Amino acid sequence: MTASDIARTAARKLAAAAAVLLGAATVAFAALQLIPGDPVTVMLGPFSSASPAVRAQITAHFGLGRPVWQQYPRYLGHLLQGDLGESYQSQQPVLSLIRGQLWPTVQLALAALLFALVFALAVAVATAGRRPALRAVASLVELLTVSTPSYWIGILLLTAFSFRLRIFPVTGDQGLGALVLPALTLALPMAGVLAQVLREGLEAALEQPFTVTARSRGLSVTAVRLRHALRHAALPLVTLTGWLAGSLLGGAVLVETVFGRPGIGALMLQATTNKDMPLVIGLVLLSALVFVLVSTLVDLLYLAIDPRLRTDPVTG
After folding, report:
1. How far apart (Å, rounded) are the C-alpha atoms in residues 15 and 17?
2. pLDDT of the chain along its 316 residues, tens only?
3. Which among 133, 161, 197, 198 could disulfide-bond with 124, CB atoms 3.0 to 4.6 Å apart, if both were Cys?
4. Distance between CA atoms of 240 and 110, rounded to whole angstroms?
5. Residue 129: left if φ>0, alpha if ψ -120 to 50, beta else—which one?
6. DSSP-derived secondary structure for the chain
């Protein structure tokens, strides 16, 4: 791949990222405009006795009295300057609110991703190409984890490991112990999907001629799986992992609510309930940015896993 190919690829990815962020901001703005209710009433609370003058002052301060076609370009102008606005409810900058809740969610997402990959790798390597009965049991467990709602998994884990065995705390975010059950709640459905995809990839790779060659050199079955077949089966796993990692923010809403943890999920639930438009749009943009970053990381991992893609400028 030449320097000009790299420059064209970088320009194309930047344009795609800008289009995704603009689309996310536009869809969020349009959706919130269609939700019934008065934002000023939400800010003041349903039982507020504020005078019409105070309401008019708030409306003018946030530009709520302007037509939508004026509010939209005004908001985009602020976004281009890195200004996400001010929360209707807390009267604080949206960027500060997101920054204050970001780290607990990042910890939760990384731990869930780690658990899911470890479980998926262990199960897929142990069952790929094995006896049908063992594969059937693994497939059944994976199907159960995928089809069970996350909040129900969380409640079951809380009942077993917090209320009965008292191993992990029930709520809060203090220490690594408080991170285990929420991360497992997010990780188990992901692990079920990843294990199924990885096992199919491994079984297809084990049928290729290179496995016979590797075995003829004296490698054990497990060594062939880990050192040769796993690399060939990794591309679909990376694609699916990237997609699931991007969706973790949405899954964090329920998990953080069940386990009483702070984070972006709890902030998103609060912002949506209160129709806090600047905060909701800021969170939607954050979610879109995460998808863009994960997508770029997946593309880079493709190049690292399969060297043939480095010579194909179209793929990059």
Report:
1. 5
2. 566 766 777 777 778 878 888 888 888 778 767 766 676 776 666 666 667 777 777 777 667 777 778 888 887 888 888 788 788 777 788 889 988 888 888 888 899 999 999 999 898 888 887 777 888 888 888 888 888 888 888 889 989 998 888 888 877 777 788 889 999 999 999 898 899 888 888 888 888 877 778 777 777 777 777 777 887 777 788 878 887 877 777 777 788 888 888 888 888 888 877 777 778 888 888 888 888 888 878 777 777 776 666 665 444 4
3. 198
4. 16
5. left
6. --HHHHHHHHHHHHHHHHHHHHHHHHHHHHHHHHS-S-HHHHHH-TT----HHHHHHHHHHHTTTS-HHHHHHHHHHHHHTT---B-TTT-SBHHHHHHHHHHHHHHHHHHHHHHHHHHHHHHHHHHTTS-HHHHHHHHHHHHHHHHS-HHHHHHHHIIIIIIIS--S-SS---STHHHHHHHHHHHHHHHHHHHHHHHHHHHHHHTSHHHHHHHHTT--HHHHIIIIIHHHTHHHHHHHHHHHHHTHHHHHHHHHHHTT--SHHHHHHHHHHTT-HHHHHHHHHHHHHHHHHHHHHHHHHHHHH-GGGGG-TTT-
Q: What's phi and psi for 174, nearest 5 deg?
A: -90, 115
Determine if the pTM surpasses 0.85.
no
